[in-house]
Amino acid sequence: MKLPVYLYGQPVLRKIAENISPEYPDFDKLLTNMWETMYYADGVGLAAPQVGLSIRLFVIDLTAFSKKFPEYKDRRYTMINAQIIERMGDDESLEEGCLSLPHIHENVIRKNKIRIKYMDEKFVDHEEEFDGYAARVIQHEYDHIEGKMFIDHISLIRKQLIKGKLNAILSGKVSTDYRIAPLKK
Question: Is the pTM value of this prediction over 0.90?
Answer without folding.
Answer: yes
